[in-house]
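User: Please fill in residues for this 179-position structure.
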């Protein structure tokens, strides 16, 4: 495991904050988007006790390629090949239709590297929490339930998940909207 490098983590946080600076989450409260990657990092550090700076940096950067104009080449230049590869594992191809991207996440889950698995688990957990605490305004009950079910399908396909993160995911899933 890498020695903890707070410079790397703070650089990733600053980079992600800049890239997501004009974005908001889909919820009614429209919270700043950067709160999402920060929530992942917090879950990894405080719940799962992960102290791998490359995993924490990946959590902070996980949506930059997918949701901003950031490229994998840019991440490789700024953060090196390990982090750019981890982010690549977690990035959907936005040129594909939503249903295809969702199916690919389910299919790809078993092939994730151990470090990417942790970030994927944290991401899905935080997304479920957000759907409960501040759901997108236009999402029906059925849409929320479908999202929960799909997230569970993705996570159920992850081999050897981190135990603490899986518990956190299961607790979030237990709040699946019922009505």
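Assistant: Residues filled in for all 179 positions:
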């Amino acid at each position: 495991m890498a020695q903890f490098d707070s410079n790397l983590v703070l650089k990733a946080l600053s980079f992600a904050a800049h890239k997501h600076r004009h974005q908001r989450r889909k919820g009614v409260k429209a919270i700043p988007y950067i709160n999402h990657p920060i929530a992942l990092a917090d879950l990894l550090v405080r719940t799962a006790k992960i102290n791998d700076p490359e995993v924490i940096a990946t959590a902070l950067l996980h949506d930059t390629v997918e949701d901003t104009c950031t490229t994998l080449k840019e991440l490789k230049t700024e953060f090196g090949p390990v982090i750019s590869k981890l982010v690549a594992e977690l990035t959907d191809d936005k040129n594909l239709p939503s249903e295809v991207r969702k199916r690919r996440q389910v299919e790809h889950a078993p092939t994730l590297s151990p470090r990417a698995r942790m970030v994927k688990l944290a991401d899905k957990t935080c997304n479920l929490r957000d759907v409960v605490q501040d759901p997108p305004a236009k999402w029906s009950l059925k849409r929320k339930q479908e999202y929960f079910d799909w997230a569970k399908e993705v996570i159920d396909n992850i081999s050897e998940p981190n135990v603490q993160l899986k518990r956190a995911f299961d607790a979030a899933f237990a709040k699946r909207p019922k009505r």
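For context: The mean pLDDT is 95.
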